[in-house]
Amino acid sequence: MGSDNGGSRRRRFGRALAAVAGAAALTLVMASCSAADPGAEGTQTVRGTSGGTAPAETGTPEPGKSGTGKSETGEPPKVADGWPRFGLTHTGVSANNVTQQFEQVVAGNLAKTPMLQNQHIMGFGALNPQPRKQEFYWEDLDSRMNLMKLSGGTPIITLCCAPDWMKGGPEGPTTETGWRDHLEDAPYPKHFDDFAKLSATVAQRYKNVKYFMVWNEFKGFWKNHNEPADFKGYTEMYNKVYDAVKAVRPDALIGGPYLGFDSHETGESELRGDWGVVSQHAIDAFQYWNKNKKGADFIVVDGASVTDSHKLIPDEFGALSKFSDVTAWLRKESGDLPVWWSEWYFVPEDGTTWPEPKRLAVQAASMIEFARSGAATALYWNPQAKEGACNGCMWHPTNGSQLPTGKLVADFATWFPADAKLEKVETSDSKIRVLAQAERMVMVNTSNASVSATVDGKDVTLKAYEIKWSDR
After folding, report:
1. Dmax over Cα atoms in the chain, in whole Å?
2. DSSP conformation class of 135
3. Residue 235 Cα to chain centre, angstroms
4. What residues contact residue 136 under an 8 Å CB cut-off, 6+ apart?
5. Which residues make beta-bridge pairs with 443?
6. pTM score, two decimals?
7. Distance (Å, rounded) from C-alpha 369 to C-alpha 373?
8. Do 366 and 320 touch, CB atoms closer than 8 A?
9. What is the total count of domains within the chain?
10. Which residue among 82, 179, 217, 368 is least crowded, i.e. fewest CB within 10 A of its CB?
11. Confidence of residue 53 (pLDDT cuts 50, 70, 90)
């Protein structure tokens, strides 16, 4: 991964190294803290594809001027009844990698607010699931799926990454070098069928899982983000996976292309706003996949409000309108399929650090954008650790207690699921952003100073970057 790949690639490389560390640690302890019953029915039954209601106007000022991607999104596409909208992705270390008691504490806290939970089949906390053509290793995936079951989560599986022998490496357990240098390699075209068969085997094993995302950020299909992606190669693999999984699990719901929507400060593309310009390479890749896919039950993308040059335009809060603009554009392009944000980011990865109140305020404001734009899903990439400082983690690394980020995600999952009916709320000061439904609202002070205002007819005062929840 070099600097020519842009900010998104550098961001993913850092997370890949964390995944390698987690996987290497797991090789020393092959017995996980828990083992799942892979044939057991799911943790939360999701019914069909009904539900969904129209988000009303909130009265909150727009983060920036309308770009060409901005549009009235109207009623969002229908999703499963009670779909939480918000959730997390388990990464290199999660609650099942510590102790059984720790896992029970975290699972108990998560179970208080059931939400979406996602796990990759290889990397990011899971060892190679098929080290040899005729040999499978399921212990890590079983353990993660059991954690989801214990915590009442709606399980999601990301069909990534690929065993070494599918991408030019040897058969056998992945080596340290393999994790470090080749985790993000794509399968060779001659092995697309093999990866599709592995995906179908995963879907058959975990029958309680209904939702599958295909691959992750075009890994191996977009090595240099200054050049076009291999969208034809990805689409060929996607279609094979789609057919294979649907053949054994007609009830499975499958989404792609899990494409990073990089943005630049300037440039030429149809998707732009005050926050910048989405890379034309990303648009070309999406449009090719969208036109040539065998089918899709939902759209998967990710991205950052930050440009590839680590800029937040016009500022950290104004840049968040990118999420709404991209969501609106995707809904229009796809014929209004549900839009999933598999990951999203809002802090520049150039050494920038923010005080925790500010980081949480920007995160809350970004989640408001997802709800207002009718995004069906937003999964938080949970940067968990076993010890030490854990900025942005959802639970404490040593005792498992809920941290402020975990509470924020849980509160949004509770009060603003995908079928929440949003209501208009007036605020006398635009520095306070508001999202409201009939019973509850959240207010976010986007200023680094205390602000007093009238919100929803009541006088309120919010400290610098304060997030305040209120009954209505």
Report:
1. 67
2. B
3. 21
4. 129, 130, 201
5. 434, 468
6. 0.88
7. 6
8. yes
9. 2
10. 82
11. very low
E strand or H helix that includes residue 273: strand 272-273
Query: Alpha-carbon distance 256 to 49, whole Å?
Result: 17
For 384-403, give the DSSP string: --SSS--TT-SB-TTT-PBP
The pLDDT score that the predictor gives to residue 389 is 85
Please provide residue 200's backbone torsions phi and psi, each rounded to the nearest 5 degrees.
Answer: -65, -35
Statement to judge: residues 169 and 278 lie in one domain:
yes
Q: Which domain holds residue 221?
A: 3-422
Tell me: do 181 and 204 sit in the same domain. yes
β pairing state of 298-304 and 276-278: unpaired
Instruction: Write out pLDDT tens, residues 278-330.
Output: 999 999 999 999 999 999 999 999 999 999 999 999 999 999 999 999 999 99
Q: How far apart are CA 317 and CA 152, in angstroms?
A: 33
- Joined together, the tokens standing for residue 252 give 């499975």
Q: What Å distances lie between residue 298 and 71, 79, 83, 243, 375, CA to CA? A: 20, 9, 14, 15, 11
Choosing from 422, 443, 464, the residue where a domain stops is 422
- 119-173 pLDDT tens trace: 999 999 999 999 999 999 999 999 999 999 999 999 999 999 999 999 999 999 9
CATH number at residue 303: 3.20.20.80
Q: Do 454 and 403 reside in the same domain of the chain?
A: no
Beta strands 440-445 and 467-471: pairing type?
Answer: antiparallel
Which neighbouring-strand residues pair with 88? 117, 380
Cβ-contact 92, 125 below 8 angstroms: yes
Cis amide linkage into residue 257, ω under 30° from 0: yes
